[in-house]
Predict the 3D structure of the following.
Amino acid sequence: MIKQFLIERRSWILLFVCLHGLFLFVASIDSAIPFTSILYIVFLSMIIFIIFLIIRFHRETKFFKSLEEWEQDLDVSAITPAESPFEKIIEQAMMNQTRRLKQEVSQNLVTLEVEKDELLAWIHEVKTPLTAMHLMIEDMNEDTLKAKLTYEWLRIHHLLDQQLHQRRIPFMENDLYIEQTDLKTVIFPEIRALQSWCLQKGVGFEVNLQVPSVLTDSKWLAFIIRQLLTNAVKYSEKSDILLASFERQGQTILEVRDLGRGIDSKDLPRIFEKGFTSTTNHHDNKATGMGLYLAKKAAAPLLITFDVQSTLGEGTNFTLCFPKRNEFINLQGM
């Protein structure tokens, strides 16, 4: 800040130096003017000028130092009040700008809330004809057409389900109910929901639950497992998917392992990114890149950690590590 201050005041400093240089020059060529006295006066004025600069530096830079330290979060109360007329012009312009931005942010938030509520209402409205459509598909006698329609119905159902939970995730802490949850009551309904798709692809399930229950929110755990099973079935063919729970170092572990196409090692660090599908199968138009992203987002408030191991062409193993009971002390409902 010292350098900037001196650059800002360089014209005044240069004027002061030139004027005193002129005094010394005149005193040196005019014998009637005592040179020693003028030199003494110049020396004293230089000291006074330096002290003046130091005082002005501290007074004039307080406002700008606070601007440098300002976090630019639309809160201008942390900025040092302006003193000089020019500083007040800057301060007033910033106040007007932040006031306008706050109004725009408030309006955008209201608009966003309205759109979110309308979308949620639309999703719930669509679920009614979707349920009726499923009942009609179940009544069909032609197995080939029935399997194709069931698969397409399932895709629509899961896409709507993802949209619904995507809107709820930012506020899911308000919806959590942590309790001892039986894994069978969560896993088996999700398997049954995928039954027709699995029969079409020749995919089976092997369930081995050494630890029968976990401490979590059953509704959000079901959503996470739904994304993992959907992914596993989508990329598997004529093979079994293993679901196993066990205890390791005092923590419950749930594994979802498939023998599908696997994930390329260079894609593994990115599979939980929003919208990321694949680099090896980039032509796959059916993938949205949202399932694993939403699963990871939903797992965070539940203190569930993800680990994934995969080999291209050999399958993928997702591991969910559940927290210990004392780690839930900060969660609502405990």
